[in-house]
Structure formats: C-alpha cells, structure tokens
Amino acid sequence: MDMILLNPTGIVFKKGHRIRGTISSSDFPIFNRNLNTGLNPYTSVDMAQATQTIYHDSDSPSHIVLPVIPRDE
To answer: 54 near 23, Cβ under 8 Å?
Structure first.
C-alpha cells in the first residue's frame, strides 16, 4: 500500500464546522513544480495537465486519517 505523508498542521473545528479535502499533484512552494512531463522542471517550459485517480472500492480502499487531540474545556 502506498502512503502519502503530509506536512503536519493543526486547526480547531468548532461545533457545526465542516471540512473538505482537496487532491492535488502540487505542493508548491514546499516542493518544486511538477510539469507532469518527466522533463527537467528547471529548464523545460512544456507542461501537461495531471489527472489524479482515487480508488475506493473493496480491492483498493482509500482513507484520510485525521487524528483528534482532545482539548481541555
């Protein structure tokens, strides 16, 4: 199973708040841009649109882990 590790972050969700996840093939400026061509990202000007596929069936289950840190009220 492949795992994508993300940089740590934290936020407080108050009652009634909702969250949304976004899938992207970029994390600029933390990582250099990805031209999606396999060419040198420093010298190439050619770019291609990326397509992400998320498999979520019984053979390829997907999930996002959102740890909960209890707060003292």
So the answer is: yes
Cα dihedral sign, 38-26-24-59 = positive
Q: State if pTM tops 0.70.
A: no
Rounded Cα distance between 57 and 73, Å, is 39
Given a cut of 80, whether residue 42 has pLDDT beyond it is yes
Place of tokens 């031209």: 35
In one-letter notation, the amino acid at residue 14 is K
Task: Please name which of 11, 5, 10 lies closest in space to residue 30, comparing C-alpha atoms.
Answer: 5
Percentage of the chain exceeding pLDDT 90: 10
What mean pLDDT, rounded, does the chain reach? 82
Rounded to 5°, the CA angle 6-62-7 comes to 5
CA distance 57 to 59: 5
